[in-house]
């Protein structure tokens, strides 16, 4: 899918990878980029390309309002995310629930609301921002990993359902990023702007599954050979970090 001249919407666009995606889309020649966030006042617009948009993905009414506002969209980046740190079984129920509400149900809300918009505009694509933690659970963020695994499965379902309607569905699986969400995480972290550009390149080349950084590609290689080995490696990494 061509990025140039597209009309895109990015959820969770006020910072981190979302902000980087907005910058990358503008640089790649998108005609309009709706930068969506709960507090869009923090997003700089007014350049004729970036348009701030209020959106809480966990609120169906907010998502419906955003779909009416961004009525010309052809490309949606499902990027808004939540990550509670800590062991899943020892975690507060509300923290794990918030991860699922944002990372799974929030993304599903966006898919449902914007699929009709994209069809009316002649077709396009969704890009679900997932994580390498969708492939094997990271025990130091068990609820987050579970929510991303659910979103990974949802991406496959949406891809099958939307293909006959002229909508592609991509999954992007970055490793740890150098963002506020990953503060305190002991791991090699990729630069968000580099990852954003790699995601756009994957979309432009039609890759269903996008591995946008070195760690993502290493994880994908292990996962393709042995999902059980990847599970053990993630568990060992979490154990060393906790020691």
Overview of the molecule:
The chain is α/β, with parallel strands linked by helices and 243 residues long. 46% of the residues lie in helices and 14% in strands. A seven-stranded parallel sheet has the order 3-2-1-4-5-6-7, sandwiched between helices. The mean pLDDT is 91.
In short:
This protein is α/β, with parallel strands linked by helices. The chain has helices at residues 16-27, 60-69, 93-120, 142-162, 192-204, 214-225, 227-242; strands at residues 7-10, 32-37, 50-54, 75-78, 124-129, 167-172, 209-210. Residues 6-179 form the Ketoreductase domain.
**Helix/strand/pairing category:** alpha/beta
Shape: globular
Annotation, overall tally of beta strands? 7
Distance linking N and C termini? 45 Å
Largest sheet: 7 strands, parallel
Mean pLDDT: 91
Oligomer: single chain
What is the number of helical segments per DSSP (H or I, 4+ residues)? Answer: 7
Order of helices and strands: EHEEHEHEHEHEHH
Strand content: 5-15%
- Determine the fraction of residues in helical runs and give it as a percent range: 40-55%
Q: Low-confidence segments, ≥5 residues, pLDDT <50?
A: none
Strand order of the biggest β-sheet: 3-2-1-4-5-6-7
Q: How much is the radius of gyration in Å?
A: 17 Å
């Amino acid at each position: 899918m061509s990025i140039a001249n597209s009309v895109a919407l990015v959820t969770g666009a006020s910072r981190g990878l979302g902000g980087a995606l907005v910058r990358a889309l503008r640089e790649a020649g998108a005609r309009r980029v709706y930068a969506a966030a709960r507090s869009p006042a923090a997003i700089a617009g007014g350049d004729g390309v970036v348009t701030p948009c209020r959106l809480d993905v966990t609120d169906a009414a907010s998502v419906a309002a955003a779909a009416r506002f961004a009525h010309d969209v052809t490309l949606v980046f499902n990027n808004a995310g939540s990550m509670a740190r800590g062991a899943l079984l020892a975690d507060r129920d509300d923290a794990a629930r918030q991860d699922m509400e944002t990372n799974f149900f929030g993304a599903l809300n966006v898919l449902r609301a914007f699929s009709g918009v994209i069809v009316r505009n002649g077709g396009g694509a969704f890009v679900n921002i997932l994580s390498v933690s969708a492939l094997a659970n990271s025990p130091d963020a068990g609820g987050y990993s579970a929510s991303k695994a659910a979103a990974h499965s949802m991406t496959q379902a949406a891809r099958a359902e939307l293909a006959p309607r002229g909508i592609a569905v991509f999954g992007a699986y970055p490793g740890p990023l150098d963002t506020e969400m990953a503060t305190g995480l002991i791991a090699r972290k990729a630069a968000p702007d580099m990852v954003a550009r790699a995601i756009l390149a994957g979309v432009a080349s039609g890759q269903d599954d996008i591995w946008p950084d070195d760690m993502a590609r290493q994880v994908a290689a292990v996962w393709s050979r042995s999902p059980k080995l990847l599970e053990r490696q993630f568990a060992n990494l979490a154990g060393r970090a906790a020691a």
